[in-house]
Every structure is written in C-alpha cells, then in structure tokens.
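assembly run, all chains below
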Amino acid sequence: MATETTPNGAAAANARNSAVVRFAGDSGDGMQLAGTQLTDTSAILGNDVATLPDYPAEIRAPAGTVAGVSGFQVNFAAEQIFTPGDVVNALIAMNPAAFKAHYKDVEPGGIIVVNETEFSKTNLKKAGYEPGYNPIEDEAIDQQYKIYKVPITKLNQEALKDTGMSPKDVNRCKNMYALGIVYWLFDRSLDITIRHLNETFAVRKKRPEVAEANIKALKAGYFFGETAEMFPVRYAVAKAPIPTGKYRKVTGNEALAMGLITASKLAGKSLHYCTYPITPASDILHYLAPAKNYGVKTFQAEDEIAAMCAAIGVGFAGQLGVTGTSGPGLALKGEALGLAVMTELPVVVVNVQRGGPSTGLPTKTEQSDLWQAMYGRNGDCPAVVIAPQSPGDCFNAAIEAARIALTRMMPVVLLTDGYIANGSEPWRVPTESDFEPIEITHASYTPTGEKDDPGFAPYTRNENLTRPWGIPGTPGTEHRVGGLEKANGTGSVSYDPTNHQTMTRIRAEKVNRVQNMVPDIEVQGDEDADLLVLGWGGPYGSILTAVNNIREQGKKVATTHLRYLSPMPKNLGDVLKKYDKVLIPELNNGQLRLILRGKFLCDARGLNKIQGKPFLVEEIEQAIELLLSGEWGDAEALYPVDGNVDVNAQALTV
Amino acid sequence: MPDTPLPTLKAKDFSSDQDVRWCPGCGDYSILNAVQRVCANIGATRENSVFISGIGCSSRFPYYMDTYGFHTIHGRAPGFVTGVKMANPDLDIWMITGDGDGLSIGGNHLMHLLRRNVNVNAMLFNNRIYGLTKGQYSPTSETGKKTKSSPMGSLDFPINPLSLALAAEATFVARSTDKDRGLVGVLERAAGHKGASFVEIYQNCNIFNDGAFVFATGKDVREDNVLYLEDGKPMIYGKDSNKGLRLVGNRPEVVNLDDNGVSEDDLLFHDESNKPMAEMLADLHYPDFPEVMGVLFREERPTYEGLLHDQVDAAKEKKGEGTLEALFNAGDTYEVE
Ligand code: SF4
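ok done. output:
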C-alpha cells in the first residue's frame, strides 16, 4: 500500500487481532462519514470489517442533546469476523452528549478520545449533566478508562485558520481531524480517505477548497497524534486471511438493490421498484432511482398500498415488480399481498424490519415481523419467506427471491432488518457467469376457431403447480384474474366448496414445492453435541462467533442457520430431532420458536432480545453456557438485561 | 408503411363467455354495451385491451369483457393501472370504479392517478349508493338520505366527482349517463385522449337507489335538466332549445332565449381548454341549474409512463446501457492478494 502522503509513525505499533472503534457526535458532526472512511480504509488495507451505524430517531434533534447523538461503530480485524463487536476498544466522543450515550460500551481500560473544547458548561447542561459536574473530570470514570482530552474543535480551527473558509465550514471538518487522530492511533494510511475527499468535493461537487480543507484537517489530526506525545502506544491490525480476489464494501440495502437489478438482467425483465419512503428501507429506493440506465424504473407511490398494487400490476403485465417497506408498511400491503397469492402473480416484497409494533423504534433493528410475513393476511394465505443473514447475503437473497417469484408465479417476502440493511461488510465482486439465467416462458394459446373452444386456461399447472404466465399484449391468452376464488384450471370465478378446499391446499402445496429450490440446512460445529443453536436473519454473525468461542473452550455445541422460513428446508425436522436441546436466539419475543415448536414438537428455548439492538456475542455465549450447565432450568425463554443473561433476573418489573 | 387493417372486431366480439350477473335492469348493462361498441368503433384489439377494476357492483365489469382483465381489491385499481402501464405503455387500459370504490376507500389513489396523468380511461359509475353491500349511503349520496346505515338520514355532505377530478389535475373530464345516447361518443373521446381521462357516468341502481338520476335520464324531463356541452358552441338546452346559460358578473344564470333582449351571443360558449369554466360547470346542480354532460375539460400533458420511459432512455444514452459487470464493479473496489 502506498504511504507517500502518510508521514512515518514514530512510535512502534502494538499488534492487535481486531479493533472496535466507535465515533459518536451530534447528528451534524459527520460521524457516519468518519466511520465509513475508517471502514473503507481498513477494508482496502486487507482487514475483515463489519459496521454498525446508529442513527437518532429524530432528523434534527436539538444539537448537543443525547437524543441527537449519532454513532458509527467499525470492527476491523486480522481474522474473519461476523459482527461489529460487543465492546468498544476506542470511542471518539465529540461532545458531552455523545460521551454520556456511549462511554459505558467501552471496555474497561479502553480508549476514549473526547473533544475537550465541547465540554463547556452549556454543553454539559444540554447533555443533562448536573451543574458543576463534568464526567471527564470524574476520577471514578478516569480510573476505568484511558481518557484523552483533545480540544479537537479548537485545534481544527487553528489548523484551518488560513483557508479563508467560514467558521461554520471550518467546523464541519472536525470529523476529519478526529479521523486523523484515529488513523494515527491505528496506523492507517491516509491515502484512501484523501482520494475519497478529492473525488467527492473536488471532482464531483466542484469545490476543491472544501476537499483541501478536509484533507488539511485529516492530516493535522494525524500529526497531532504523532507529535503530541499524548498516546503512549499505537496499534496495528494486520491483514485478515480472506480469500483473494476483487472486493468492495457493501451495505445490506445496497447489496439488496444490486441483487434486484441482477435478477432483472438474468430474467431479461426490467425491474420496477414501487415503494413509499420508510425508514430503514428508503436507501433501496435511493440506490435504485439513479440506476435507470440498467432499465430500472422506480415509482414513488402515494402510499404503501398503491406501491404494492403497482408492483403486482407490473407482474400481471409481464415484468419484474418489487415493493420495499418496513413493518408498518407490510401491514398496509397485506390485503394486496393476499391478492397476489390468489391471482398467483410474481412479486417480491422486501421488508426491512425495525422495532415495532406500530411506529415503534423506526431507526432500530428487530426481527419481529416474522409472523406478519408468514401469516399476516386474511384467509389461508401462504407465501415464500426468505431472510438473508448478512449485508452481503442480501444480494444473493434478492436474486433467489426474484427467481422463485418469476418462475413459480407467487409472491416472495424478503425479510431483512435494520442491522444488516445499514451494516456493511466486504463483498467479493462476482462476474456475470457466476449466475444461472432465470428462465421464463410466457404462455401462448392459439384459438381453435371452433364454437366450443375452451380458450386459454390460466389456472392449469405444471409439476411444481405453477400456472402459466399469460401477459397482456399476447393474442390468444386473454383472460381475467381477480381476488374471487378461481376454479382450478379454467380460472373462472367459482364458489364451489370442493374447489375452494382444493385451491387452498394447492396454494399451500405450491409454497411447499419451492422446497426443491431450497438447499438443505447444514450444521456447523459438533454434530454430536447435545445443544443446537439455531438462528435466522441478522443474528447469524453473533451466533456463529459465540458458538466458535464456546467450542474453543473445549465444549460441544452445534449451530445451524435458517435462511428459508417458508418453505423450510426438507431436512430441518431430522436435524432438530438429533439434539436434546435447541436454542433460538432472536430479536423478538419468540416468533420462530413458536413456529418450530408447533411444526416439529420440539422443545426449543429462546434467547429473546427486544432492545432495538443486535445481540452481543457475550449474551449468546451466556445463554449457551446456561443450557450446557443445566442452570437454565425450565424457562422457555430468557431475556438479556444490560448485557447479562441471568436466570434470576427475568421477572417483569413494572 | 404497412397497411393498417380495418377494424374487424364487432361489439359482440368483446363480450366474454361469462354470464353477466348484475341485477336485471341495472344501469351497468347499458354501459357494458356502450363500452363494447366503443372498443369496436375505435378498432381496439382484445390482446391490447386491459380492464382493471376495484370492488363493487361496477367492478365486476372486467369479467364480461373478452380482453385481459384484473378484478383487484377495494379502491386500489389505480395502483394496478399504474403498474401495468409502467410495465407496458402500449396497452389500452380501462379502469372501472364506482362512487364507493373510487371516492371512499380509494379516493386517495384516484387523485394521484389523475394528477400523474397515467394514460387510462377511468370510468366512475356513480349510483349514489352502496350496491354490493346492499344499500348503505355512499360518498355521493345526498345529505339526509335514509338508508339501512342512516335510518335518520345521512349526515355526510356529498362529494362532487367532477370537481374532485378537476382539482386533482385530470387532463380529460367528462360526464354522461347510462341512458345517454352521447355515452358512446364521450367514451370514444376519452379513449382517444392521451392521458388520464375521467368520465363520471350516472348509473341507476334499480334495487337500492332507483330513480336517483331520473331528472337527467327521464324521457320527458331530461332535456330541460341537462345541457350537452359542445366545444365552441353556445350553451343552449331545453326541450325547445330555448334555454341558455350566461354569466352575469361572475355568476352563471339560466336565461330564456325567448325573452326579449336575450340572444345566443349573450350565452356562454363552451371552451374545453378553459379550466376555470370547467370548474364552474362541474358545480352546477339540478334543480337550480341544468347539469352538464359531455366533455367539460381537456388538455394535453405528458403522461407519467411516457416521462418515465423517457428518463430511462435518457439515462441509457448518457451513461450507456448498464451491464452486470459495470454494476458489480461500481464504487471503490480493491484487490485482496
Ligand atoms: S345492486 Fe344496484 S348497482 Fe348493483 S347490480 Fe344490482 S342494480 Fe346494479
């Protein structure tokens, strides 16, 4: 890696296996950008990376308050990692509110760099501290952490005083100053960020002076680390042994959008993304709207219902219709989704889950829409449900969802969550030849010309129970579909009792037969263990890490991951039978647990975290230990509290 | 230029094999006949015609047309129309809705369909009652109407579909009735209009609201109660063609041409491109005024799906047709060695 612009570090760096760094500041402080830059740089330097952004719920909460704090956590490592990390090794707190909201997540003895300039009386008060109290002067806190007081605002102003920029613009560069300090601390090259700043500000926005000021601030921060003799050590995180090849960093929403475009190309259909803005799904729209040169059409509908209906209309007309939303939006789409089941039309519904019910916790993650995705419609109304397990996996899951929808003529729900949607990881760049085309044949019919010509029958079926896809514009296959029950075969409206029972069973069996496209689940870890830890969706990384850690201690445990929630893999029942104990960690109140208990009569236990946050690896480890040791007892589920899973701290305190 | 074959399909060729299940005597029958005639007259093809409806008596319409059809969910037909049209702008789309479907549960969607100017022929069958649910008042029912759900009289003030369509920026707004000889002509013009056409059709529900529009359809009375609009022509009506509409100050007034000093030149002349006048005409109600029939307003504006496809074409021209290789390699890539 070229280090031309990077001055030689003075202090020798201590090697670390991984580092978890969190930037925290006001929502206007540019913390997301600083975090993204550290991520990109670390990825390009060869580390494995995982990120966790944390946005405030309010767009412009009062500056300096805890409600307005925005955070971004990066884990970069010299080994393969699957989570953004449980505890923070280094926190950058740009003001007292950021300090207050985040310092407790720092490991004992961990680094906290505070922007001392902002720890004024007024700001301490805004953060809700008692008059006369300043946490960075508190000895008890000082003994617990390594606190470095750096007057970042002031130093940044000094560094940029000759740029001729307004004080406001100068202040906006202080995130780069802070990033510079972090780059020095963790021995990172400045090159990648410098290139990014030049590209963004000098080339794209045609404001070279802004690029220059930001670069100046970044370098000044770096030099400060080097010359201030404040930090006794710096750290180095070596390259991770990841497979060679070309990579880029992707967020879950970005990967999902790319997957949809890829599916449309593989199918030779144009992608129509019909949606209504909603957190945390809107970024999919933001990614697709400028992708029109890929033949993508985006439709920002007047509401969630219209978006769903338009996507079904697209399917009826013979193209790829997709709608995207989050929990409350899926509730609104329910009736139309039922129509897609009834009319057997292809459509993909993306639900980026967030904390619920109702408006809930819009910017926080949760897995509590599983039941809604599986059952949240009137009538017996089954649909395929797929849940990707990581940001990069959203790409594959989107292709699979579209493939099933288009080739099996049915709606598919893609359940992601805020954690993987906004999180990012390195993604190996594929090539077109890595993918099978999505083969579609549209129906045709030549009228016999006879009086008794039965005409095109839209509800006949092949071996997968798939009906033919006859599309408007094609002579011969004219037909009518709708929400009234259809006679199997002809598709005419039918109120016949036996037909309704047959059709209800066909709709269920159609979903079941998708099993022939679903790979068997694989068990990792000790096949002969007593305990199987089974997860779905976003917790995949935390579960895998926890299981690996426990196994490193010589204890036996196995794990498996359910990507297909409906239909479930063929071998799931057999796998479950092999284990005495099954633990299902989920970010909800036990939704998959109830399904598996009902379906397989298996005494699954739950670890249920409903705090708007992903699992800590530690929490899952504790749950595993409790089950292995027998201390778990009879409880069907345990809830972590403050990072601890304690069988004696389960009472509901009201 | 290839020869365009003359239309060979007749009205009955658009009729499907399904038994029509409206109540005998329902106004929907004559509208169905009119639409089938229009399809034949304009040279429509079965394969390119799509009938999309919501829920309600009128929304059974697609089952009776031997074309493509989609009987969707209550109030949401506009969403489906938009999706179908985005996916295939070449199709001729007809949307069938009613006063409940289009103005109550689906009021929001109708408004957005019209303002976006999706190229569709939207027909709103207004019978001022809920038929399929057996006789509750609808958003167009008159205040005080006694129905099963309003035994002491409805409290709601009715909405005016034409005023709503004009306010929602529809580019073609017209009205007719199920008994009107002009219905076919109005629908032909709606079909010829490129953009969102909105046609309100007074439709008699002989079971739950019989005679609601007798003033506008009754043989003996209608000519004195309705005014057929013709572009560029003076607004004259009446059995003896002796009544007219003029403006006094800024208010409309009914005049008798037989009266001294009143001539045709004093009357309002219809101008389909005059929106303020259309808004005024939409707001004329029986019995104080004649109710207008025909095309109130029409303007050219690019269609939603046309603009959308233009943007796709422009993006392809500017950035080149996107390939998967370009997609995968966008952004900052790096090599791990
Ligand atoms: S209830 Fe009224 S509107 Fe419905 S079919 Fe019967 S007559 Fe027609």
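Residues 14-236 of chain A form a domain with the Pyruvate-ferredoxin Oxidoreductase; domain 3 fold (CATH 3.40.920.10).

Residues 14 and 235 of chain A are 5 Å apart (CA to CA).

not gonna interpret more than that til we talk
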